[in-house]
Amino acid sequence: MARPRLNSGDSHSDDLPKPKLNKELLKKATQILSYLKPYKGKFILGMIFLILSSLTMLTFPALLGAMIDAAQGKQTYPWLESSVLFIGGLSLVILSFQSIMSFFRIRLFVEIAEKALASIRRESYLKLITLPIDFFANRRVGELNSRLSADLSQIQDIMTTTLAEIIRQTISLVIGVLLLIIVSPKLALMNLCILPILVVTAIFFGRFIRNLSKQTQDQLADSNSIVQETLLGISNVKAFVNEYYEAHRYSKKLDNVVNLSVKAATYRGLFASFIIFCIFGAVIAVIWYGASLVAAGEITVGDLTTYILYSMFVAGSMGSFPELYAGLQRALGSSERVIEILNENTEDIKVTEEDKNIKRHIMGKLTFNQVSFAYPSRPECNILNEISFTADAGQKIAIVGPSGAGKSTIASLILQFYQPSSGEIRYDEIPASSFAITDIRNQIGIVPQDVLLFGGTIRENINYGKLDANAESVIEAAKRANAHDFIMGFPDGYDTMVGERGVKLSGGQRQRIAIARALLKDPAILILDEATSSLDSESERLVQEALEELMKNRTSIIIAHRLSTIKNADNILVIDEGRVADFGNHVELLSKGSGLYHHLYTLQSSQKSLTQ
């Protein structure tokens, strides 16, 4: 039985895409690095500290080797005093210097990265909220939220640690190999013969094990999705007595997880054993061959110690590169996804404090002239076809029709969420293109069917209609919206938290909060998008009274499902399959004795009679 796979909600950085490095990807990444430009001086200073701390770290093996030779009465370097006390003191001085350099390097890189990342976050968020509605219609909120969290966290990692580590480990590797050759060319040649075998084996084994790990994670995610969807639909599971089926399905998926985990563990064990054998074998070979060179007088014990320590530096650097490279890949992939948002075309608005200042006022007249529209994602499918109607200032125009006829699309066009494919929308006989988008939206209010409240207080949600309104105005709007009494019934009154999306309030209460918000905004044009369709009778009565108060002295576009609520509309626009099927007031449309409106009204009236 095919069932939709749900996201398990697990988030692992290892599961993030790791795209292949190419010129196009690196070009996009440089756009992210451009955010470091304001901190160029600090970045260069941080790089200097990084190089100095890396170079001073590489002096310790040489100093320790010299100390051992000095203890035996030998002098490793002619220019260095062969006193154990002097070399020990010099090592402590260099260690202190190295610690200071590391501190300033870390401090500077973190400061630069955090400030640059804050700029990226601000610009990404600003970009998101100024993108057109169509952008959000084609993307999931979770995906966009991920770009502001998981993707930017990956970019943060590379700015704060990964980039610095790559440079530091590269310095350690390159200079470390050169120093190995200088200390003992023979030992270095022996090591370099073993190195290719280790590298090639690690690459192939690593890829194979990562693939197995990914399969295990996928199977585990599938098992988690079974738990999630089963618990969400537990009433259905019990109603159909499918407990055994669900338990068996989950158990089968867990068996796959176990089998893959054991298989992966087997290969990891083989790989780990091989690597341990090679590493310790190489150490034994170096000490064995180095001891023979010491016995032959070709190198000193101090040189052998220095060589072993430098070998550990080089091995550590090489071992860190696979993880650093994987981190770089993840960060570049994240950069690409963030850049996609930053390069999107926004609406023609400027986000400033002056956005709420209306520069061109609308009295309320609204005209649709031969308007046709198709959504950008489906340009071949017209939702509206040559729609024409006029709503004079202060008039109530109802829009009715079957589901999918295009009623809500008209509301979106009035708000300028989309632009018509053809035809023209005019406000006060002035083309929409002559207004700033912010001027239009500042003078249009909407009360939707499904009201979204923000997770703050009731006061904050009402205030959203007019951010600079005082407390008295908020209370007055609530009273006019029939909301004041139920608000004061809460212990915290207007400071009551509404919960996420307003879940702590009933549907009727949310509607009246939305009406109060619209009253506070005091728009010239009002859109009511099936505002009472999902309410019980008592809530509908209270909301309808509030809506009557809201519609006073303003142009109102009423998208209605219950036709009994629009009898008093000045005109009714009947839409069918994206076209105007009829136009007139309630009496005129019913007196025809036929037509879509007559059919819908008769149908609803008969259904109401049956339910009474």
TrEMBL record:
Domain ABC transmembrane type-1 stretches = 44-330
* InterPro entries (UniProt xref): AAA+_ATPase (IPR003593), ABC1_TM_dom (IPR011527), ABC1_TM_sf (IPR036640), ABC_transporter-like_ATP-bd (IPR003439), ABC_transporter-like_CS (IPR017871), P-loop_NTPase (IPR027417), Type_1_exporter (IPR039421)
Q: How does it sit in the membrane?
A: Multi-pass membrane protein
User: Which Pfam families does the entry link to?
Assistant: ABC_membrane, ABC_tran
| Record bears the keyword Membrane | yes
Annotated ABC transporter domain ranges read 366-602
Q: Where in the cell is it found?
A: Cell membrane
Q: Which UniProt keywords apply?
A: ATP-binding, Membrane, Nucleotide-binding, Transmembrane, Transmembrane helix
Source organism, top-level taxon: Bacteria
Q: Which positions, given as ranges, span the membrane?
A: 43-64, 84-104, 166-183, 189-209, 270-295, 307-328
- What is a single molecular function from GO for this protein? ATP binding
Mention any one GO cellular component term assigned to this protein in its UniProt record: plasma membrane
- What's the chief localization of this chain? membrane
Q: What is this protein called?
A: ABC transporter fused permease/ATP-binding protein
